[in-house]
Design goal:
Layout: H1 2-5, H2 14-28, H3 31-39, H4 46-68, E1 74-76, H5 80-94, H6 100-119, H7 123-130, H8 133-155, E2 158-161, E3 165-168, H9 174-191, H10 197-215, H11 250-254, H12 256-284, H13 297-314, E4 319-321, H14 325-330, H15 336-348, H16 353-356, H17 361-376, H18 388-403, H19 407-424, H20 433-452
Antiparallel strand pairs: 1-4, 2-3
Helix pairs in contact: 2-15, 3-4, 3-17, 4-13, 4-15, 5-6, 5-12, 6-12, 6-13, 8-17, 8-18, 8-19, 9-10, 9-17, 10-17, 12-20, 18-19, 19-20
């Protein structure tokens, strides 16, 4: 291990790396409850999603460990899984597409292939450098609000209203009450820097829900999608088979533009999520060089791209680098050995599927809301007082995502607004070709939406 991971060179040891790996796992293990809850809305088997999430997380994290030797863990990205389930699959289902998740998985796989190719041409670094800071930050904030809205919906905190579009849900429902209790619990644990605070919040909310079910407050109603919160062990502890290579490429033949817009949306969100996370974690662990650059960044991005492809093959949404890796880095993790430990724990979790898939949406809601809160922090770095192009593009990215229930719309309107305002500012030459290509693709998507509305 010393020879491969170069522990002494990085000022660490095996014990420190093991503790760091466990810390990272505890900080992000909530995804094993959240991902099946979100993706099962597409018609996928939650037990299969759980298996895919465990295996894909382990595989992606091991790739990061052995290709780049960095203490960064990977799993199905928050925000990307919501976009996968509640926008892509939902719209495909409205078009009458059977098993829409198969088309979405194909889009994720294609995204991964494109990322692998782009990793060799430094396209990702170029696009990140050329997209304005406000737009990049706005995308992060917008996704945070979108995830929060998904959490609110899952707990019944917000409800549809024909007059005001949305309104407060029933304050006497156990789902709403317990979700708020869970959120406050996570906040208190976070204040005291308790490791795995998000996971503990989910478990507390779920535990209180089971008590409410036994007491008769939470009433099971299968016909109305209100299921029992008690784990069902009738299938045993053997992991369910995942949806392996469940791709449907036939959709592309007659819907190429629509498919490529989905791919590009996955690509764009994943790009900023990955690069921002990697740089942030590296900065926290003093892994950047004297020029502020990340050594072996190409390998880091390649590992992330390979993880995305493998995750799609296994049957889960985009696998990406996790910002929770910073928790392990804060515990002293400096090498890929930290990632190896985290990966091993993901594999060990496979036998716990009956427990994780019984966790309801309202118990996951506190995690979604709190993650949304953390992502909102990016707004403090935005400059809303100067350049109109950057200001408007960032603002549109923030508000369009939750208000149109679409991550893609936020990216699309934000990027197009930036390009158009720059043109009127007579600064078109400052727009990088990569931005023009991105804008052209989104223009084609608008044409498609106009055509479909006729």
């Amino acid at each position: 291990m010393e020879d491969f991971f170069k522990l002494k060179e990085h000022g660490t040891n095996v014990k420190t790396e093991v503790v760091a790996g466990i810390t990272t796992f505890l900080s992000m293990v909530y995804i094993l409850a959240v991902n099946p809850s979100i993706l099962s809305a597409t018609g996928m088997d939650p037990r299969a999603i759980f298996t895919a999430t465990c295996v894909a997380s382990a595989a992606g994290t091991l790739m990061m460990a052995f290709l780049a030797n960095y203490p960064i863990a990977l799993s199905s990205g928050m925000g990307l899984n919501a976009y996968f389930a509640f926008e892509v699959c939902s719209r495909l289902a409205q078009q009458g597409i059977q098993d829409p998740y198969k088309v979405a998985l194909a889009a994720v796989f294609v995204e991964g292939i494109i990322f692998i190719i782009l990793s060799f041409f430094k396209f990702r670094e170029t696009l990140v450098n050329e997209v304005p800071k406000n737009l990049k930050l706005g995308i992060t904030v917008g996704i945070g609000l979108f995830i929060t809205l998904v959490g609110f919906k899952g707990a019944g905190i917000v409800a549809a209203n024909k007059d005001t579009l949305v309104s407060l849900g029933s304050v006497k429902s156990p789902q709403l009450v317990l979700a708020f209790v869970g959120l406050l619990f996570i906040a208190v644990l976070h204040h005291y820097k308790v490791k795995g605070s998000i996971l503990w919040g989910i478990l507390l909310t779920w535990g209180l829900g089971m008590i409410a079910e036994k007491a008769g407050w939470y009433v099971v109603d299968v016909q109305n999608q209100v299921f029992s919160l008690i784990p069902d062990f009738k299938h045993g502890l053997v992991p369910a088979a995942p949806h392996v290579a469940a791709f449907d490429f036939s959709f592309i033949a007659n819907n190429f533009i629509s498919f490529m817009v989905v791919v590009f949306s996955f690509l764009f969100v994943d790009l900023f999520d990955t690069v921002g996370t990697v740089i942030g974690v590296a900065h926290k662990g003093n892994l950047l060089d004297k020029d502020g650059k990340l050594p072996k960044v190409g390998r880091v991005l390649l590992a992330d791209a390979l993880g995305t492809c493998f995750g799609a093959v296994m049957g889960t949404s985009t696998v990406t680098s996790y910002v929770e890796s910073s928790a392990g880095v804060a515990q002293g993790g400096r090498t890929g050995l930290t990632s190896v430990v985290t990966a091993v724990l993901f594999i060990a979790s496979l036998v716990l599927s009956p427990i994780f898939v019984a966790i309801p949406a309202f118990a996951v809601a506190p995690a979604l809301i709190f993650v949304g809160l953390l992502m909102m922090g990016a707004v403090t770095h935005m400059d809303l007082s100067d350049d109109a192009a950057g200001m408007v593009s960032g603002f549109l990215a923030i508000v369009m995502m939750p208000f149109t229930y679409s991550i893609a719309n936020g990216i699309m309107f934000g990027l197009l607004a930036f390009i158009i305002i720059r043109v009127f500012q007579k600064k078109a030459r400052e727009i990088h070709p990569v931005m023009w290509v991105s804008g052209a693709l989104f223009c084609l998507n608008i044409v498609k939406l106009i055509y479909e509305s006729k």
